[in-house]
Amino acid sequence: MTNNFSEPVLVKIKNPKKFTQVVMVLDNETVLKEIQAIRDKWGIVDFYPRSKYFSWQKKLGQEGRDKEFRENIETMRRRKGLDPIFDLVLKRAAVCNEVIDSDYKSAYLIPVPDPRSSDFKHAIVINPNTTKDDLLYVFEKFQEDIKASNSKGNKRLAATLPKYSIEINVDTRSEIQRDRKWYWLYKAGRSYLQIAASVNERGKIKPEDYRDNVIKQIKRYSALLKRWTFTQT
To answer: Quick one: 90 and 118 in the same domain?
Structure first.
């Protein structure tokens, strides 16, 4: 599939709150432009299937360019004031044009200085949308890293973890997936009436009569995106 922004990044996340958090980032015009810049720089003309993502990443490693790619993604994420939990989301969006549940964890780790020594402690940052599974994932991953580094306080993590955050307040209506679909159909050139005619859920309502509802929801989704601002903290 050739990349272009007449179609959205495919987001396969079941939890409505997490879905909304992710699409509010990936549908933002400034983020889309930066994702496209990443694709252009790295020669991503066609999207890579998820099954080939790690092969592509391995190839970068063999070329000695994997660190540069990671830094490009992290720089883009920092510019938007996003939490580190979005690193993998942005990578998958840029390379595969697809994001799934396991790409987005609503908790992450930050280093905390210990006033009693030169060591660091670590805290898990959560938000109102954090799930028990995400919390457990971060905890278990931290334990693995501690064991692998065999370093008290794990200073390696403390030195590499960014300290950026963003407060995410989003609309998590159950219709958000539908509204996003209509929004992107309109961006792709479909008229309001054409979109209304394609909606099976309208039942016996004529497309002409359903058109106003389509307009209302598309404008609402668009306003939601415009209301969203990225600030670096």
So the answer is: no
Q: For 17-47, write each residue's pLDDT tens digit.
A: 888 889 999 999 889 999 999 999 999 988 9
Question: For residues 195-209, b (16+ Cβ closer than 10 Å) or e, as one string?
Answer: bbbebeebeeeebee
Whether 84 is in a domain gets the answer yes
Among left, alpha and beta (phi > 0; psi -120 to 50; other), residue 203 is left
For residues 113 and 76, state if they share a domain.
no
Total Cβ atoms within 10 A of residue 225: 15
pTM across the whole model:
0.72
Range of 3-12, 102-111, 140-149, 213-222 with top mean pLDDT = 213-222
Beta strands 120-126 and 98-100, pairing class = unpaired
Range of the domain at 18: 10-103
For residue 9, give the DSSP letter: P
- Band (212; pLDDT cuts 50, 70, 90): very high
Residue 94 and residue 15 in one domain: yes
Inter-CA distances, 137 with 106, 121, 127, 140, 142, Å: 10, 18, 15, 5, 9
| Total of domains in the chain | 3
The residue-averaged pLDDT of 53-82 equals: 91
